Automatic annotation (TrEMBL):
<dbReference type="GO" id="GO:0048038">
    <property type="term" value="F:quinone binding"/>
</dbReference>
<feature type="signal peptide">
    <location>
        <begin position="1"/>
        <end position="20"/>
    </location>
</feature>
<feature type="active site" description="Schiff-base intermediate with substrate; via topaquinone">
    <location>
        <position position="483"/>
    </location>
</feature>
<keyword id="KW-0479">Metal-binding</keyword>
<dbReference type="InterPro" id="IPR015328">
    <property type="entry name" value="DUF1965"/>
</dbReference>
<feature type="domain" description="Copper amine oxidase catalytic">
    <location>
        <begin position="328"/>
        <end position="730"/>
    </location>
</feature>
<dbReference type="InterPro" id="IPR015798">
    <property type="entry name" value="Cu_amine_oxidase_C"/>
</dbReference>
<feature type="domain" description="DUF1965">
    <location>
        <begin position="250"/>
        <end position="317"/>
    </location>
</feature>
<feature type="domain" description="Copper amine oxidase N2-terminal">
    <location>
        <begin position="75"/>
        <end position="156"/>
    </location>
</feature>
<dbReference type="Pfam" id="PF01179">
    <property type="entry name" value="Cu_amine_oxid"/>
</dbReference>
<keyword id="KW-0186">Copper</keyword>
<dbReference type="InterPro" id="IPR016182">
    <property type="entry name" value="Cu_amine_oxidase_N-reg"/>
</dbReference>
<dbReference type="GO" id="GO:0005886">
    <property type="term" value="C:plasma membrane"/>
</dbReference>
<feature type="modified residue" description="2',4',5'-topaquinone">
    <location>
        <position position="483"/>
    </location>
</feature>
<dbReference type="Pfam" id="PF02727">
    <property type="entry name" value="Cu_amine_oxidN2"/>
</dbReference>
<dbReference type="GO" id="GO:0005507">
    <property type="term" value="F:copper ion binding"/>
</dbReference>
<feature type="active site" description="Proton acceptor">
    <location>
        <position position="402"/>
    </location>
</feature>
Amino acid sequence: MQLAVYFLAAAAAIGSSTFAFPWFRDPCAAGFASLPHGNRQNRKEDASPEICQYDKEDNTKAPLKNIFSALDGNEIAAVTSFLHKQRELNLTAAVKATSWDNTIDLVELLQPNKSDALPYLNGDGPAPDRYARVGIQFKATEEPYIQDYMVGPLPVSHRTKLQPLNYLYNKGVGKQRIYHADINEEVAFYAKIGASVADITLDLWNGTFMGLPNDTVFVKGFEPLQIGNQSVITWLQFWSYPIGTIDDRASVLPLGLHTKINIAGRDPSKWSVLGWYYNGNFYKTTEAFRKAYFSPGFQKRGANVDGLWAQLMRDGEPRPRDTLVAPVQVQPQGRRFGVDVKEKYIEWMGFSLYIGFTRDTGIRLFDVRYNGERIVYELGLEEALSHYASDEPMQSGVAFLDSLEGFGRVSYELVQGYDCPSDATFLNTSYFTNEETRTHANSICLFEMDSGHPLQRYASSNTVSVTKSLVFTIRSISAVGNYDFIFDYEFFLDGSIHVTVRLSGYIQASYWAHSGDYGFRIRDNLSGSMHDHVISYKLDMDVNGTANSLLKTTVVPTRERYPWSDGELVNTMKLEKSFIDNERLSKLNWAPNSATTYTVVNKDAKNIYGEYRGYRVSPVTSSTTYLTVQNSESLKRSGGWATHNLYALKRKDTEPHSTSSYNNLDVGDPVIDFNKFFDGESLDQEDLVLYFNLGMHHIPDTSDLPNTVTTTAVSSMGIIPQNFHLENPSRATRQQIRLTFEEGKASQAEIFGSSHATCTFDMKNVKPNLAGYKGDIVVPKFPFLSTNVSFAPTRLGSQTRPGS
């Protein structure tokens, strides 16, 4: 900055017309148009401007059929019918099933193997056969389990077969025990426990939990279960019911009373209470707790009670001018991106891609190309972990692995004008549950926006050049229990991609008693309850083909002696470059001071300057955490993917994911153990896959009430070109300007073929259609009638799990 001021001062002294330093551009360069005196551009004043009009038809057609698209309703119905004909499965229709029947849990697309998909995408082969991934819950047994099968090829014909789906899982079999198969019996058992201390809870909180309609408190346990040889342990805590409609604000209403239970086996008469915890004291039996409670001197603590402080209503003094309409985004000439809705194919400013969708992880991007060149084969969410810490037993054991809830299942309709701009383009998503297809209308939004700051800018003594920073966003929001996850994939004019997640919702708080080391006190009886969010993504990049290597570049301090330094050592810095060439070295953390970057390159593809063409992976926000807890007893062998920031592996068809939603069912015996992937294979010029973690260390404070805000709960990763292009590709955009000014007035301008809207925009076009909010669209699949469509209310935060 000081150097620039010095040279500008020198230019003024010498005379700008003769100032010839090479980094100052000629302000009289050819191609500039003169501006009329006093105007910034040629503009014809129109007393009656025309209404903005544009063709809303989009003729974009995908170059290929989307082989990653979800199964359609007819495919799901055919597979469901096929399964019911397989006698060995002994299936019961969902509408008739009890907790002792075998049922279909999942029917969705089995993602094609990359080795089969690439020839098709490259124009060298046919589309791979289409298969369904099927999950069957076998509950007609003393040891219930869920098992995956593959059904195909599709459409269903004489060629279609049912086969166990094992190759995806390094456990050796796609099968996992279910320890929560008897939910109704568990709830009845919990009610008996509540009844056994009803006099105590009445005395403490003037409320009871006995499984009755007039209950004013309830109990909730932690995940995952603690599974032993003869035990299935969980801790329950008592919580206050919210006032009125039950929603997830109950998670900020803990009451501080805990009970430890064993629910091993399917005979409720053998389930047992193993102890009670209250106010820092553990009691081994209900009788011991009751005796202590009714003894003199027993300390009773207050309750967390619902009120306006916990409710999502406007509160506080009105802000000046806040009744004025807030700024809105408009597209005067229509959207500037193309969408093939049927194929879920998108084009924008040189980018193209396909969208896939799964129940467990939501949307995934495939075959992402820039200027026709593939840079990403697959990009998508793998898992989200919320690991808590506390001196109380329930919060201490909580480690939510949220894919079991299903990010796609709870990817609900977006609210126009609030979740996304009103003029965004919306797409639907569907998933299978209880032999129905549920469609979430408008659950993906696509929009381009001006970020409000320049993408690039430079000003000299009498010129200024500015390029707009325009961003294209693909967004979905998943309401997982008490948290909403806002997932963005953002694309930029320079060829960069940002993967961003924001969190909002109700924290799961702790009861404040002795918990100062584990969170802030945010109300009289409430602790913020510290926790880590670790959110894993898969990134399969193909840079100049599939033969890739991982280049490590580190900025290091050094003392160097140069020919010009008169023999003196100079304190400076330099680059150290090396390759991560083996899986033994490929569990990586970001370096302090952001000193290291990792870039996917092809060693056989250099640019004309001899540098590797590549894409680097770098944090965009400072918050990209890995799990603080080491060797977590709550996660056991299911958290290997959460211990570092970044991982690099040799890609295999048999290792398509770092984890599975089934892992949460038995964390000590996961169907996918991520650590087994690291078997010492070479990473030199191989087809690589990266896994990176987003997230944050969340220490809730008073500003998290009633909801956490996205200004702080945000994490982002950049996928950024490094020597991939010979110059900045954003130079191709017309959305830039170069102004020349003289004597305090703009005299020349070049707008490079762009234009500014002068038509009148009808603001009704961007008014949110709130009355059109639909919720779920339900189509039964067994028995199947294509006209049997109904609407169901959105069930935010419902806790459906395998076995429930």
